[in-house]
Design a protein that fits this description.
Blueprint (H helix, E strand, L loop, with lengths): L1 E2 L16 E2 L5 E3 L2 E2 H8 L3 E5 H18 L3 E6 L6 H9 L3 E5 L1 H9 L7 E4 L5 H10 L3 E4 L2 H13 L9 E8 L21 E2 H12 L4 E7 L10 H11 L6 E3 L17 H15 L5 E4 L3 H4 L3 E13 L2 E6 L8 H5 L6 E2 L7 E7 L8 E8 L7 E5 L20 E5 L2 E6 L4 H6 L4
Helix pairs in contact: 2-9, 5-6, 8-9
The structure holds pyridoxal-5'-phosphate.
EC number: 4.1.1.20
Protein name: Diaminopimelate decarboxylase
Keywords: Amino-acid biosynthesis, Decarboxylase, Lyase, Lysine biosynthesis, Pyridoxal phosphate
Amino acid sequence: MAAQRDPGADLVGLFPPGTTLDGSGALVLGGVPAPELAATYGTPALVVDEVAIRARARRYADGLAARWPNSRATFASKAFPCTAVYRLLAEEGLGIDVAGGGELTLALAAGADPAGLVVHGNAKTEEELRLAVEAGAGTIVVDNFDDIDKLEKILRDTANATTGGEQPVLVRVTPDIRPDTHEAISTGQNGSKFGLLLPQAREAIARLRGSDRLRLDGVHVHVGSQILDTAPFAQAVEAVAELGEFAVYDLGGGLGSRYTYADRPPTVEEYLDAMIDVARRLLPADARILIEPGRSMVAEAGVSLYRVVSVKRGGGHTFVAVDGGMGDNLEVSLYQQRFEAAVATRPTGEGELCRLVGRHCESGDTLSAGVPLQDPQVGDLIAVPVTGAYTYALSNNYNGARRPPVVFVKDGAHRAVVRRETYADLMRRDLP
Ligand SMILES: *Cc1c(COP(=O)(O)O)cnc(C)c1O
């Protein structure tokens, strides 16, 4: 079946800014032709345009500071938890969100300033909270009353040099807002496992105000991910404003990214305007505002490269099977995220409507259910754009897959920041 690309669709426009085509028509990422990257690092590989992440970080930090000077942009690191990414965003002056001991360890290993760490999680163990307190984490977000019990116990046990025995905390509020996004990544509704509904949040606030070990700085709200309109963000600010005046308001993350031609997410500036307009009306003028973008900080900087292993036609379908799939990109099977794709050496022009599928033993292992690919052949290089967020983080060893390398590109240079797993790595934890 022939398929014409949407005439308005600018395929290259879905790739990181600065992506070009070389003389042969092949994609050039960060100044490096995609075939050269594949030849050097093999496939599958996750290529990340360092310049694109830095530019996005500055756009967030500067945009927020221009609208609300007493503020900080914080990277929700679960979207891409490798030390090279932590280091890059720490260098750009962002704070770092961590959920759990693993992300905390990675952030510290990357040299992130502990004072800028925001520690999240709906099930923080005492061990993890102790790690955070002892590291001098600037902010711990209380998700439940058990967090308060555990923290008070830890602070009774530990005289922490960095905080002088007093740990700053925020209370995570569930405002009962249901943004238009996939259920699995909606977090602000009644029935969410995250945070406290307003009555319970009030109770936690009262309890924390009476604590001599925990210093209540304010409240936190995060209503979901891949949100493609600004209204839920504005509503979230209205909801936290109802809880009263605080020194700090952490307004979370969640801005959607443009995965497909059809996606029209708000710009960073539109998103900031929506929240800060409400903040100006309802929050104290001297309050500090934090935001926590994850997906939108890194998604558009990433490109996954695969090699075509098989092309199979029948029953009206063309299956183009590649050497990766749900082992390196779970976004499709978890949230039915749609991705576009292209043959990296001839990305533009007319194509055959294909199902781009992975190598794993499940029918749900699809990278794109319907994408035009130009004359796909075994051995072709396939590029899937907008894979910077939640792919590396969710990569796994299903079917014995070795997790792919992460390769940074910048100004024509490339370097691996995470190497590909080896079969020896797969065996390492296995005790025969
Ligand atoms: C995941 C998460 C974020 C980031 O969400 P994105 O949709 O990736 O921007 C921010 N804050 C908290 C508490 C989160 O859990």
